[in-house]
Amino acid sequence: MKKNLHPANYRLVVFQDLNNNTTYLTKSTVASDETITLDGVEYPLVKVHITSSSHPFFTGEERVLDIEGRVDKFKARAAAAEKAKAARMAAAKKSSQRAAEKADKAADETQKAQ
Predict the structure, then answer these.
(1) The dihedral of CA 60, 64, 66, 70: what is its sign?
(2) CA pair distance 62, 60, nearest whole angstrom
(3) Which of 10, 15, 55, 61 is most buried, judging by how many CB atoms fall within 10 Å of its CB?
(4) Which are the contacts of 45, defined by CB distance < 8 A and separation ≥ 6?
(5) Angle (CA) 98 101 107, round 5°
(6) 36, 69 contact by CB (below 8 A)
(7) pLDDT digit string (tens) for 15-57?
């Protein structure tokens, strides 16, 4: 086996879920400047947005976990796309009406010339 394969700074760290403040004490090499005291012992603290205690897949709850605004961005893009589609449809309809009017006018002029 290779020597010094595993990191040397493997230690106990607390991960805290920001949605429901659940804490998990586990071993990790992650660096952190914050600390928390659990059971009279001080540990490094890492704050996370989603864990198994707040994710809908594990909790069975259906709720929006939109922290970075992903859902809002998607809805805005969808609304903009719908608006652009409506504008293109209106322009195409207007263009076809103009072409039909031109064709009618040309047909009328052709009939008058005969």
Answers:
(1) positive
(2) 7
(3) 15
(4) 13, 14, 16, 32, 34, 35, 36
(5) 140
(6) no
(7) 999 888 899 999 999 999 999 999 999 999 999 988 878 776 6
For 40, the token pair is: 């009279």
Token couple for 91:
């322009």
The DSSP letter of residue 11 is E
Distance between terminal CA atoms of the chain? Answer: 100
Task: Return the residue matching tokens 């992650």.
Answer: 30
Reading the block at residue 17, the tokens are 């879920």
Q: Which of 17, 16, 19, 15 is nearest to 28 (CA)?
A: 15
Pair 46, 32: CB distance under 8 Å: yes
Tokens of 30: 């992650």
| Phi–psi pair at 93, nearest 5 degrees | -65, -45
